[in-house]
Amino acid sequence: MSPPHPDPSSRPPQPMQDDASQVGYYDTDELVQQRDESSDMLSQIEPLSDESLQALGRLARYKPPFDTYPVPAGRAAVLVALFGSRTGKNLNVLLSTRSKTLRTFPGHVALPGGKMEAGDMNLEATARREAFEEVGLPYNTEKIRYLTTLPPYLARNLLLVTPVVVFVIDYSLKPELNADEVDTVFSFPLSGFLSDTGSDPSLTNAVPKDVVTGQKPYHTYADYEWFGSAPSRFHSFETNHKPVTGLTAGILIQVAEIAYGRKPAFGKEAPGEKSREELFQAASQDPRWKVARAQPSIDDTPPSGKL
User: Fold this and answer.
1) Which CATH superfamily is domain 20-286 in?
2) How far apart are CA 213 and CA 162, in angstroms?
3) Which of 1, 32, 80, 177 sits a CA distance of 20 to 30 A from 129?
């Protein structure tokens, strides 16, 4: 059972706010201070390559935009947990496959996450609580250090989903799966979400052989109309498990862009695709918007189904 009031020490304790200006937003001075502390600790981890250390530095320097969206109803968060590969050359991300017995989205690949609850002081607390409940990642913020928060995404069921990015410093941590929610956990190279083919050396052991040889495509996408207007692009990436698709793929593309300071080798957006703010505005006028505030879980599939 998770603690009733998680208290991530990397954020100052505060009660649930009614004002969106104080939820999911972090003071610039705090980010600078935290970045200095993180750099000292990260510099002591010899296995990490220079590229990986630079990627973590870019994430720690990323300033999340001011969060102006309604809270807490209809808010959710996912934890993007990064850690070094065995060789130290790559940064990997922790992913899970949802239990096949779940009523919603069984078997899908996902990031740990879920809806904000009354005991969550902010969206980081939501992401950490869900990761603890699903895969046993502890609340310890010295072993799992906060890096940054990304702007929220719109899930198919109209929940606003905020990605919280952390770095797992303690290599001794072992996942403890909640079998009711999670079937398996696996890792995948973060840089792979910028690649268009499976021939990238970092993907050799992360994707099937027919993907590495080019017999099967590694990356595909489809454009769907959302709210009867401009299309939105949804991506899919093959793995040795199930594909990473939809919302999860979109989040990891953006995390990889920030971390490695480059654009993906493919078109990320559909021609004429709405900005995230325009999409939120259109969604808020949809009759399903109020219904979405009561949704129990995140729907990360494209509007017309799985890719």
Assistant:
1) Nucleoside Triphosphate Pyrophosphohydrolase (3.90.79.10)
2) 36
3) 32
